[in-house]
Specification:
By secondary structure, this protein is mainly β. Helix content is about 0%, strand content about 65%. Strands 1, 2, 3, 4, 5, 6, 7, 8, 9, 10, 11 and 12 form a 12-stranded antiparallel sheet that branches.
Length: about 190
């Protein structure tokens, strides 16, 4: 049986902790709350804790595992999302991995610097399949393929992050529009500035 216990609280004027645990939580439940269901499938296990204190600093630690995520029938992989405090609590290390067909198709790693409210994150793609986005596309698009490889970095203040890339590459991407049945293709380097 799935479980989703939440315990504790958050207070702006004293130290407190709010904790959440997920045990075999069925993501299909999310579709019930969306205006347009996306056919989400998968189970989540893990925990998160949100910490508050009188210094108005809020921190979150988490460790989640998502097995066999599917969106509209498309394999979106198995994910791991973790965070941990580093440098005596001044930095929150973050890691998100999405393993598809045995490889890290998508991986985000980096840090959030609490006092400066600054980000330093890098997302790496290894032929991450565009088909994963099928659930979010209009019905007129009947097929999507190809992928993206390379990296995107995000640095700067959390409220004004600056993305950039140097080695981003679209790998044989295509979109088929139902009306024409003809695939439009894209292949080659691209960048985020």
């Amino acid at each position: 049986a799935q479980q989703l216990p939440v315990n504790g609280g958050i207070a702006p004027d004293r130290s407190d902790t709010l904790s959440l645990k997920m045990d075999r939580f069925d993501l299909a439940l999310i579709d019930e709350f969306l205006p347009e269901p996306i056919g989400i499938e998968g189970k989540v296990n893990g925990q998160a804790s949100l910490h508050s204190g009188p210094d108005k600093t809020v921190g979150m630690l988490m460790d989640f595992r998502l097995d066999t995520l599917r969106l509209s029938g498309v394999d979106a992989g198995s994910m791991v999302l973790t965070s941990q405090w580093q440098n005596e609590g001044r930095e929150l290390g973050i890691l998100l991995r999405d393993v598809i067909e045995g490889r890290d198709a998508f991986r985000v790693g980096g840090s959030y610097f609490v006092q400066d409210k600054r980000l330093d994150l890098t997302a790496r793609f290894d032929n991450f399949p565009f088909a994963v986005a099928t659930a979010f596309l209009p019905e007129i698009i009947t097929e999507v393929g190809g992928g993206i490889s390379g990296s995107i970095s995000v640095t700067g203040q959390a409220d004004d992050p600056v993305p950039y890339s140097q080695d981003l590459h679209i790998d044989d991407a295509f979109v088929r529009v139902g009306l024409t049945g003809v695939p439009d293709t894209i292949h080659g380097p691209t960048r985020v500035v």
